[in-house]
Amino acid sequence: MLRAGPVSTPRWASAVRARSIRAAHAETQRARLSSVAGSQSSVNPEEIAHFSRLSQQWWDERGEFGLLHKMNPVRMQFIRNKVLEIQREEDESSANETLPLSGLDVVDVGCGGGLLCESLARLGGRTLGIDASSSNIAIASLHAAGDPALASTSTSAKSKGTLSYEHTSVEELLAQRGPASFDVVCSMEVIEHVDNPRMFLTNCATLVKPGGHLFLSTIARTPLSYFLTIFAAEHLLRLVTPGTHTHSKYINPDEMTDFFLSTPLPPDNAMSLNGAQATTQQQASRPWISRLYGGAPLRTEAEIRGMVYLPWKGEWMLVPRGAPGASVWAEACNYLFWVRRPLE
Amino acid sequence: MLRSAARVGAIGRNTKRAYVLLRRAASTSAPQETDVVIVGGGPAGLALASALSSSALARSALKVVLVEAGDLSKVAGWVPPPVTWRDKSLTLKPQEIGAWNYVEDGRTCPIDEMQIWDGISDARITFSAHDDHAIAFSPPGAPSQMSRMTENLNLQRALLRHLHETSAVEIADKVKVQSIQREEREGGGWPLVHLSDGRVLRARLLVGADGFNSPVRAYAGIQSYGWAYDTTAVVATLFHHPRTSFQAPNTVAYQRFLPTGPIAFLPLSPTASSLVWSTKPHLAKALLASDPGVLASMINVAFRLPEVSLRYLHNVILDAASSGAPITTEKLQQEIAWRERSHSIDSRSAYSLAADPTGVPPADADLLPPLVTSIQPGSAASFPLRFNHADEYIGDGPGARTVLVGDAAHTIHPLAGQGLNMGLGDVEALSQCIHQALLTGGDIGSRTALLPYARARYFENHKIMAACDKLHKLYSATAEPVVWARSVGVEVLNELDSVKAAMMLAAGSRPSRARPSGAQLGANLAATGLESLARGVSGVRTLTEGVANLAGAGVQRLLQTLSDSQRR
C-alpha cells in the first residue's frame, strides 16, 4: 500500500486479506517459475500466468475482455483531452487536433493485447508497448501486423504514428533506455496486479521526460469496488474470470495523490536502480504535485477522473469534472489518474 | 480478367451485381489497402461518401472507395429536361447533407401541407407547416416547410458534384463486385472485395449500401425477417392544370387510404406531380396495361368517388382486361359519369370529373388534388412492396467489419414517404460514429466503434417501419367497427395540435442539428398541453356557470309563474 501511516483494517478488508495472504504464499512457491524476475522486479508471476492463459481472448470483443474494449474509447478520450489541454496551455498553435500525439514518444507499460497501444499509435504517437507476458506480446504483434496503418517504422508521413512491442518489464526498460525517455507513459489497469506498487510507480515516473505525462488507470479500494468488480463481475455475472482482481491490491485515488505529493521524483538513486551508470545531467528531484487545494490537486498538475459503466447503454462514461459527491460514487470504483512531471 | 480460382465454384446469377461467395480462393494480385469500401452508389452510398468527405478528420485519416456497377457519369452529366420529369421522385426532409447547395432548387418542390383522409369514412387529418406549433419549432427566418420533393437524379447528381469537388473519395463506377471473401489470417482476417476490373480491395470497414438484395449482407451472414405485402406500387408522373389564384399553390400532398391501398399525390411543380398508388397486384397490372387516359381517369376517380363506386369501376376494368378487350377511355368516362349521377355529385363540385379547373373553384376544391389531364409517357412503372428488416446492422464473427445502411438494412411501405429519410438518417448516424471513433484513435471496423450506430438507428428504424406496417394493416380493413374506430381516432388526432407537431418533428421536418433535445421538446409539449388544459378547464367552468345560470333563470321563471298563478 502507498499509505505511510498506521493501517486500520476495516472488517471487510480482513476477509480479502486472508485470501491475499494465501495468494502470497502460493506466489513465493512460484517465484522460481518467473521468467522476467529480477530481485527488484515488481512482476508477479502468478498474475502473469493468469493473463497469459487468457491471451487468446484479448481481441474477442465479446469475450473475457469485452468490458476493457468498451473502456478503451473513454481512456483514449481522457488521454487526448489532457494532452491537448496542456499543449494549448503552453502553445496554442502547436496543438494538433487530428494527431495529438504526433512527434511524442509513448510507452504503454503492461500493454496486454495492445488495445491501448493501437489507439495511441493511430493518434500519431511513436508507441512502444511492453508486457511481462510473452504470449500477450505475441498476440499484440500479430494483431497489429494485420493493420497497415500500424507500421513499426514510419514510412512517408513524419507525423504518423508507429507501433512496436517488446517483451520486457519496466525495470529492464528503464535500464535499457535510461530515465526521462518518454513523453507519455501509460499504465492502464496494471498497478493493481503488481507486487510492489510504490516501486512500480517510481519506475514509471522515472521514464517520464520533464513536462511529460503519466497516465494510470486503476480501481479504488472501497466496498463499492468490491461489490462491482469482484462480487458482481467475477462471481455473479461471470463477465471476468474469478481471480482476476484482488481487492487488497486496489489503490485509492487519495493514496495516489499522496504519493505524488510527498515523494520526490525522480528518485535520487534513479541512475543506480539496476546498476546502470549515472548520467552527468543533474535532474531536480521534487514531488510532482505542489499542494492540494481543498483536497484536490491543481488542474495542470494532476487530475483524477472516475469512469462508470452504464449497463443500459453498454458503454463506459467519464464522470464529468466536479460531479457532486464524486468521491462517493464516481471515484469509488474505476478511475483514471493523470499527473505531469514539472518542467525543469 | 477472371481468375480461374474464382471461376471454380461460381454460381451464375443475373441479379443487379453478379456475386459469388467463396471461402478459400487464391488471389494473384496484391490487394489494395482501403479504410472504407462503400458498395452501392445509390442515394445512401453517395450520401455516406459525401458525409465522410465533408469532415476534415475523416478526409485526412481515411481512404474511401465507392463501388457502383452502373455508370455514374450519366448521373453526373444529367441535365434536367425542361418538361418531363424522371420517375422515382421521392420526398426528402430538409436535412443537412452538406451537398444540398448542389441540388437544383428549381426542380424541387416544398411541401407545406399534407391532407390525408380515409377512403371509406372520409375522416381527415391535416398536417400543415403553417400550424402555430410547427412554426414554433421551425428555425427562425427559414421558410416553414415540412419537406421537399426532389427527383432521385437531382439528389444523386448533387452528391456526385460534392464528391468531385472534394475529391477525397475514389469512385469506382461501371465496376461490379464479383465476390467478397474473408482473408485467411490468424487472429481475424479483413474482407477482401474482388472487383470485376481485376482489383482486390482489402477493407477495414465494408459498408453495404447496395439495396434490397445486398451481397454485403449475404457475406456478413446477417439474416433478415420480413414478408411481401400483397401490394404493388404504381408510380407515374402526372400533368394537370395549375392551381387557380383562389387556391393554395401546388405545394400540398394528398393521400387517400383505400382498402386496396393508399393513393398519394405529391407535387413536383405547378403543373406536374408524382403519383404513388399502392394497390393489389392484379389491379396494378390491369391499370398499367390500359390506355394512359384510363389510368388518368382512374387516378382522378380514386380521390373523389366513394369506395363502393371505386370497387365497381375496378371490377369493370378487370373484367374488360380479362376478357381480352381492355376498356377504352370514353367507355370508362361514361361509367364514371353514371356513377357520379347515382351519387348525386353535382357536376360543378370539386368531386366531379367534369369540374372546370380554371375560374373560381368550388368551396371544397382545396380538399382534393387537381384533376389529372395526362400522364408523362414512359413514366408509369410498378414495383412490389415488401417489409424487410435485417436482424442486425453490424456483422459479427466471419462477417466482421461490415455494416449495412439504407435499403440493404430495411425496406418499408411507401405510405409515409420515409424510405429515403431512414437511409439518410442511417448515413448521418454512421458518419458521426466513424468520426467519434477517429477522434479516439479507434479501429472504425471494430464492433466497439460501430455499436453506437446500431444502437442509435435500429430501434428508430424499427419504430417507423412498425408504425407504417400497422397503418397499412389498419387501413386495409373494411369491417365497420374498425373503420369507425380509426375514423374517430383520426378526427381526434386532427384536433391535437401538439401531437401532430410532435409527429411532424419525428418524421424529420426540421434540420436535425436544429432539432430540440428530447427534454426540451417534452417541456414544450407539456407547456402547450397545460395551456390547452387550462383553456379547456376555464371553458368548462364558463359552460357550467352558463348552464347553472340558465337553469337558475328557468327555475326562477317557473317559480314566478307559479306565484303569479297562485296570486290570481
Keywords:
heterodimer, A: 344 residues, alpha/beta, 8-stranded mixed β-sheet, two-stranded antiparallel ribbon, 10 strands, B: 568 residues, alpha+beta, FAD/NAD(P)-binding domain, D-Amino Acid Oxidase, Chain A, domain 2, 7-stranded mixed β-sheet, disordered N terminus, oxidoreductase activity, acting on paired donors, with incorporation or reduction of molecular oxygen, reduced flavin or flavoprotein as one donor, and incorporation of one atom of oxygen (chain B), mitochondrion inner membrane (chain B), EC 1.14.15.45 (chain B), FAD (chain B)
What can you see in these coordinates?
Chain A: It holds the Pfam family Methyltransf_23. Chain A: It is a peripheral membrane protein. Chain A: InterPro entries: SAM-dependent_MTases_sf, UbiG_MeTrfase. Chain A: Pathway: Cofactor biosynthesis; ubiquinone biosynthesis. The complex is a heterodimer of chains A (344) and B (568). Chain A has 344 residues and is α/β, with parallel strands linked by helices. Chain A is built from ten helices and ten strands. Chain A has helices at 11-30, 45-53, 66-90, 115-122, 134-145, 170-177, 197-206, 223-236, 253-262, 326-330, and strands at residues 105-109, 126-131, 162-167, 182-188, 208-219, 292-293, 296-297, 302-310, 315-318, 334-340. The radius of gyration of chain A is 19 Å and the shape is globular. Chain A starts with 10 loop residues before the first helix and ends with a strand. Mean pLDDT of chain A is 83; it is low at 1-7, 28-39 and 271-282. By secondary structure, chain B is an alpha+beta fold. Among the domains of chain B are: 32-70 and 174-223 and 391-468, FAD/NAD(P)-binding domain, CATH 3.50.50; 230-383, D-Amino Acid Oxidase, subunit A, domain 2 (D-Amino Acid Oxidase, Chain A, domain 2, 2-Layer Sandwich). Chain B has helices at residues 4-7, 43-54, 56-61, 72-76, 132-137, 152-166, 215-220, 281-289, 292-304, 307-322, 329-342, 419-439, 447-476, 480-495, 497-506, 518-567; strands at 32-39, 64-68, 89-92, 109-111, 113-118, 124-128, 147-151, 169-173, 177-182, 191-195, 200-208, 224-240, 252-258, 261-267, 272-279, 372-375, 381-390, 402-404, 410-411. In chain B, strands 5, 6, 12, 13, 14, 15, 16, 17 and 19 form a nine-stranded mixed beta sheet that branches. In chain B, a hairpin with a 2-residue loop joins β13 and β14. Classes of the chains: A alpha/beta (344), B alpha+beta (568). At the A-B interface, α3, α4 and α5 of A face α3, α12 and α13 of B.
